[in-house]
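Wed. Picked up where I left off yesterday with Flagellar biosynthetic protein FliQ. The coffee machine is broken again, so keeping this brief.
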Amino acid sequence: MTNGEAIDIMRSAIIVVMKIGGPILLLSMAIGVFISIIQAATQIHEQTITFVPKVIIIVIVCLVFGPWMLETLQDFMYEVFNLMI
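Structure written out below (tokens, as returned):
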């Protein structure tokens, strides 16, 4: 394996991580900003108010996008193992 091939594998790995983690991070950040705006408007600063909705959203996103995430990860691993052969 040359240095170029190793760099290509690492680049692909970073892209897969961004694809898999992107929906979870974006939705949890959006919910966090929305709840922060509500907390600033109402002046209620309780930590559990932001924690519970984020956990619920993350669970829902994992249930909805879980099969796609698993398929993406499997495809990447098949590519890596095929390069080993």
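Quick read: Residues 3-42 form the longest helix (40 residues).
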